[in-house]
Write a structure and sequence with these properties.
With about 150 residues, this protein is α/β, with parallel strands linked by helices. The protein has five helices and five strands. Strands 3-2-1-4-5 form a five-stranded parallel sheet, sandwiched between helices. The protein starts with a strand and ends with a strand.
């Protein structure tokens, strides 16, 4: 049924619930989970400034993806502790596009996203991640209702 599940996260409570439910489903059916998080590019000037504020031996950790890497690491650890095989992906750009790209690359059977942004007038905006994913997905989509 589901051998490969892609789930998007930004570290929010809504995304955390999507990750939890994707993990539970993957564990039940023996699927692999691919966790995706997107980031926007950070200018070199800002990175240089931030590096000056940390000790020399820690400056390598200041990079355009540091927040995303921490989010992915936390999600990956939770999924791994549940006994589920997990891979993580940090992608630059639009979160919906990142999720869709990984789903296509991994030939996913299911995409799991939270419903944040799907209420009221916002649900009609093309920029809404769950809306965009649901309309362009190469596979089934499970939208986790958290609000």
């Amino acid at each position: 049924m589901f051998g490969s599940i892609v789930v998007g996260t930004d570290g929010s409570e809504t995304a955390g619930e999507a990750v939890r439910q994707a993990t539970d489903l993957a564990k039940a059916v023996g699927a692999q989970v691919h966790v995706v998080s997107a980031f926007e590019p950070v200018g070199n000037q800002r990175l240089r400034e931030e590096r000056t504020q940390v000790p020399d031996d820690m400056q390598w950790m200041v990079n355009a993806r540091e927040d995303v890497e921490a989010t992915l690491r936390a999600a990956g650890e939770r999924i791994g502790e549940a006994g589920v095989n997990v891979e993580t992906y940090a992608r630059q750009g639009d979160p919906a596009d990142a999720i869709l790209d990984v789903a296509e690359e991994q030939n996913a059977d299911l995409i799991v996203v939270g419903n944040k942004g799907m209420t009221g007038a916002k649900r009609f905006l093309l920029g809404s991640v769950p809306n965009k994913v649901s309309h362009h997905a190469p596979c089934s989509v499970l939208i986790i209702r958290t609000t």
